[in-house]
Structure formats: C-alpha cells, structure tokens
Amino acid sequence: MQVIFTRAGFRRGVYRSLPVVLGLSPFGFVTGLVTAHHGLTLLDCVLMNSLVYAGAAQLVALANWTHPAPIVAAAFAAFVVNIRFALMGPALAPWLEKLSLPGRYASLALLVDHPWAISVADMRRGGRDAALFTGLSLPIWLSWIVTTTAGFLLARSLNLPPHHPIFFGALAAFLALLVPLWRGRVDILPWLAAGGTAAAVAQLLPHTSWYILSGAIAGCLAGALLDQRKTSHD
Amino acid sequence: MTETASTLAAIAAMAAVTLACRCGGYFIFARVKPTPFLRNALAHLPGCIFIAYVVPALLRDAPPSWAGALITIIVMILTRNLGASIAAGVAATWGITALL
User: Fold this and answer.
1) Which residue does chain A place closest to B9, by CA atoms?
2) pTM of the model
3) What's the average model confidence in pLDDT over A132-160?
4) The dihedral of CA A104, B42, A17, A8: what is its sign?
C-alpha cells in the first residue's frame, strides 16, 4: 500500500470529525461538571483534559478522588481504563510508517476511540491517506478541551446536588460505548465473567478500583479459553 | 505535599501513564509478536473493561438509573449516536426520579 499524507486527507478528516465533535460534547460537558463536583480547580480541569484526554479514565479516577489527591490510585485507574489504547495503536501501523518518528508518536498521543475506529474502517476499505487520522484527531481534542471547560464553568452556577440525575451521563457514556463493541454471541460468556467478577470484587473491596482490572482480566481469560476450545474443535 | 501539588502530581501521573498506553502498544508490537492466546485475550479487552466498570456502578445505583441504562442502550442501538444516547439516558433517569 502506497501511503500518502495530503492536505485534502486532513480536510476530509476535519469534515468527518464534526458529527463526532457534536456527539461527544454532552460527554465532555458531564466530565467538566464531574471535575468541578470533586473540587478540582479550573487549571486542574484544563490540564487534565488537554494532557490526559481520556474521559472514561478521568471519570473512574474522579469517582474515587480525595484531597490531597490519590496519586497512585489515579494513575492506576488511568492504566486500567486506557490499556485498550495499547491494543488500538498497532492497527494504525500501516499509516504511521509514512510519518517521521516524532510524527508517529505525536499522532499516537492523541489516540482516542472514535477517530481510531473511523480511520481503521477507512484503511480496511483501501484508504491510504494518513492525514485523515490527524484531521479527525485535532478537532476532537480541541473541542474536548472546550466542552469540558464549559461544563466546569457552568457547574458553579448550576450548583447541582451530588446525586443529581445529570451525573448519570457519565455512566450512560460507557453503556453507549458498549453497543459498537458488541460482536455477537462470542461476547456473551466473556462479558458475563467480566460483570460477575467485577460485581463480586466491588463487594469485597469497596472504595477501590480493583474491580475494573479483575473483571476485565476474568472476561479476557474466559474469552481466550473459549476461543482456544473452538479452534481445537474445528 | 500540599493539596494543589498533589492534584497536579496526580494529573501528571495520569497523563504519563495514558501516554505510555497510547504509544506503548505500537512500540512493543512493532518489535515482538504476542502468542495466539494473548492476542485472543487482548481482543476481548475493550468490551470487558466497560462491562467491569458499568455492572458494579449500576448495582450501586437506584432503579431510575437502571431504566436510564436500558434507554441509553436502546437509543444507541437505533441511532449509533453517542450524544443522543447519553442525552436520552439522562432525560429518562431524570424524568423517572422526578416522578417517584
């Protein structure tokens, strides 16, 4: 595949990022609200959203936030939730090879679910313009900073109680993301193993985030064992 | 450590770990090949992570959230629009909480 990197590809990426920008803005807004709700400052909020730039991980970390901040627990939450990015990066390899070494890692630094999914789908259909990924990534990163900041600033004037239904938005984002991840019957047993283990560990070790990692590992092991049995029966 | 410094340190630690996750997979898999078992296990990771997060959270939450969860998933299946699903789920949870 002769990979190219063109201005037209970048523009196409920006254009295709617009529905994602719109779709993610309520998620960004809720993340900003939750950040304010846990007592972080405006500077903390802007730094976290521009440098960490991983809403799911931030919400998990914030759910167990304390003052002074739980440094190890927050880093651990980021690791558990974001380790999926390590699996996504290699799929972009054919496009990344076109870029300089700093260019490759700068592109990976902005890796998130939606631009990745759109780029991989384009690549599978024969797309060979690596600038599409950059064009998708930059507007989504910038709008994430804007919408989270807006949520943070409005939290002060809205002054919502801790159990206000709007905070359900954080959980709703994860539930919605599960839908495109569902691949059919192969997922039933791994997902049951993950959910069951997570529920049990959350009961046994309350106020920690161990349940996420243990549930994820149980699900992955169940899935890999099933895959292995299937291939040995074929 | 002061509260401000600990918050900034926590954010820096999260940023460093996340950057390592984003770049590390490409860095490692450009050099070593995972075993078939590990590759199968990793393929199950994205769905299992989110399931492991939402199940205990829903069990902790009250029934209006369970209805909201159902609405969120149905709207996502029908529209595949993240923003619309979140908005519908929040609206349903809010409405049912207000009614009860």
Assistant:
1) A71
2) 0.78
3) 94
4) positive
